[in-house]
Design brief:
The complex is a heterodimer of chains A (239) and B (304).
Chain A: E1 12-17, H1 26-35, E2 45-46, E3 54-55, E4 59-66, E5 73-80, H2 88-91, E6 98-100, E7 107-109, H3 119-123, E8 129-132, E9 137-140, H4 145-148, H5 161-165, E10 171-175, H6 182-190, E11 206-208, H7 225-238
Parallel strand pairs in A: 1-11
Antiparallel strand pairs in A: 1-10, 2-3, 4-5, 6-7, 8-9
Chain B: H1 5-27, H2 37-60, H3 79-102, H4 109-131, H5 144-164, H6 167-193, H7 200-204, E1 212-216, H8 224-229, H9 235-261, H10 266-290
Helix pairs in contact in B: 1-2, 1-4, 1-5, 1-10, 2-3, 3-4, 4-5, 5-6, 5-10, 6-9, 9-10
The chains are: A alpha+beta (239), B mainly alpha (304).
The structure holds iron/sulfur cluster (SF4) (3 copies).
One iron/sulfur cluster (SF4) is lined by residues 92-93, 95, 97-98, 109, 114-120, 138 of chain A.
Chain lengths: 239, 304
């Protein structure tokens, strides 16, 4: 059903910390690794060793530069599906392949129903859906639905692959519909925000802003008299 | 947006077909077209052929054409699904109308009216598919749906003018050509000046920290998203093509039709005008895609 549920019991999603993300791409790699044998498998690569390598990824790490000069900084910016509450990708789908689950709010594609019309990827303002030319169907982040409910793994492993693998603990997973959940408290404490609020999709995922720089820019060491003498001596010897 | 050739062909051919069939439904019972069964066969046949060719092109552009029937199931939420339902509902109505004319000798007014209604509905749904896509400001535009409807009527009328060589229909087609010219001119004027409310600042949420610039893309080579939604057309090329569409696609057909009516060889001029109107519409559709920009390209350093 591509009509959206009026209410979802949970709002499962990710909270991504732009302060601690180091841009290592580990989450993207582990996402690919996990999902290429999951329900959306395979995550096809085209010409993987050629000059025009291209493939399906559910999570991509962008890098931006913000601000000028000494206060400028690099921000690594992972982006995957935000599991929007008003998901336009779901309502445009003509087949019922795209859906938003009423129980937990996860947005999924049923690969057996998808006709590969690509309209959902046009409707998503974030670019979170990727077409698999090989399969002729649309694919996207599943919030690792095959992992988070798997009772055969220890409870601490029942988190998305990207969350489990992040070496900087920059990715958090939980119920953003519950104001007392760990992720909701984190968002409240750090001033977490939604992307492109003006697009009206009401994304569930939240991003935590980079913290303010704690110290003034490090001053360059001023060379003292001894150092200058030593340098001069060095140059003499070098001659 | 990368121009999707099958979709461009589909909307042009089907648009003209629906325009023609809808107009036949209204004009034939009113006695404004020749009433012979032969004319009924030729005109309805041409309309159905155009509609069918377009629909086939759009189905074969799918990743899974064999599942196309599924696209009829989500009409409650999806304009694409509604378009599919309308397209399928339209067939028996068009056939019944054509049968009333060809077999029973009289184009039925009620069937004709319903045919016009369902033809309009189908084209309206097509326009809605685009106009409801908020991430693309050039499509999420008040002139998108009127543009699809008007070009469908214009191409339908210019085909009908070529088939009937009727001066009245020729004048109507010329008037519609001028209307289409005006509408597209206003549309282009408007999209050239409007800005997307979404910027890299809102896309990353980092606007308060200063100006945001792209440093590194996620991958060294373009991915599906960039191929599909990062397409850009050079300003000079788009200006040239716009002039060609307005001139050769709309103004020249209007001129040819009026010349023919004023005493020129209408039998030659009207078919040429019809052909030009279709070519012009193909160009217009190509530009509709090529000039459309998507918010997600912001993440890759392009402005929407
Ligand atoms: S991020 Fe895109 S694909 Fe994911 S739910 Fe929102 S609109 Fe749909
Ligand atoms: S590509 Fe598949 S999931 Fe996306 S809108 Fe089309 S049918 Fe639905
Ligand atoms: S939740 Fe799973 S599918 Fe989604 S980005 Fe993370 S690892 Fe990939």
């Amino acid at each position: 059903m591509t009509s959206l549920p009026r209410h979802t019991e949970k709002k499962l999603g990710l909270v991504i910390d732009l302060d601690t993300c180091v841009g290592c791409h580990a989450c993207a790699v582990n996402c690919k690794e996990w999902n290429t044998s999951g329900p959306s498998a395979p995550l096809t690569d085209f010409d993987p060793y050629g000059a025009e390598a291209q493939g399906v990824w559910f999570n991509r790490i962008h890098s931006f530069e913000v601000g000028e000069g000494g206060t400028g900084r690099t921000v690594h910016f992972p982006k995957s599906c935000l599991h929007c509450e008003d998901a336009p990708c779901v309502t445009v789908c003509p087949t019922g392949a795209s859906m938003k689950r009423a129980e937990d709010g996860i947005v999924l594609v049923d690969a057996d129903k998808c006709i590969g019309c690509k309209l959902c990827s046009w409707a998503c303002p974030y670019g979170a859906r990727e077409y698999d030319h090989d399969h002729g169907v649309m694919k996207k982040c599943t919030l690792c639905v095959d992992r988070i409910y798997d009772t055969s793994v220890p409870e601490r492993d029942r988190v998305p692959a990207c969350v489990a693998t992040c070496p900087a603990s920059a990715r958090h997973f939980g119920d953003l519909g519950d104001p007392d959940s760990e992720v909701s408290r984190l968002v409240a404490a750090r001033g977490g925000f939604a992307l492109m609020p003006e697009q009206g999709c009401r994304p569930v995922n939240r991003y935590l802003p980079p913290r303010n720089a704690t110290s003034a820019p490090t001053p360059l060491p001023q060379a003292g008299l001894a150092a200058r003498l030593a340098e001069w001596a060095g140059r003499l010897i070098a001659r | 947006m990368r121009p999707a050739l099958s979709v461009i062909f589909f909307t042009t051919a089907s648009g003209a077909g629906y325009g023609l069939l809808g107009l036949l439904g209204l004009l034939a019972p009113a006695g404004l077209t020749p009433a012979t069964p032969w004319f009924g066969l030729a005109s309805n046949g041409l309309g159905l052929a155009l509609v069918t060719a377009g629909l086939l092109a759009s189905v074969f552009h799918l990743g899974h054409p064999e599942r196309a029937w599924r696209a009829m199931t989500q009409w409650r939420s999806s304009w694409l699904s509604r378009e599919g339902v309308a397209a399928v509902v339209a067939y028996p109505i068009f056939l019944a109308f054509a049968a009333s004319w060809i077999i029973f000798g009289r184009p039925n007014a009620i069937l004709g009216f319903i045919a016009a209604l369902i033809a309009t509905t189908t084209v309206f749904c097509t326009g809605k598919i685009y106009s409801t896509l908020r991430p693309i400001r050039q499509w999420h535009h008040p002139l998108t749906v009127p543009g699809y409807l008007l070009l469908s009527i214009f191409t339908g009328l210019s085909l009908l003018a070529a088939l009937t060589l009727s001066p009245r229909i020729g004048v109507a087609a010329a008037v519609m050509a001028i209307a289409a010219l005006g509408l597209k001119y206003r549309y282009w004027h408007s999209i050239d000046r409007s800005l997307s409310a979404t910027t890299l600042a809102t896309a990353t949420g980092l606007g308060q920290l200063g100006q945001v610039r792209m440093l590194d893309p996620p991958h060294a080579t373009p991915n599906y998203l960039m191929h599909e939604m990062g397409y850009r057309i050079a300003r000079a090329n788009s200006a040239r093509l716009r002039r060609a569409v307005l001139g050769a696609g709309f103004a020249v057909p209007a001129l040819l039709l009026l010349l023919g009516i004023a005493g020129g060889p209408l039998g030659v001029l009207a078919p040429v005008a019809a052909l030009l109107s279709l070519i012009g519409t193909l160009g217009e559709r190509w530009l509709f895609f090529a000039e459309a920009t998507h918010t997600q390209a912001l993440y890759y350093g392009l402005n929407p």
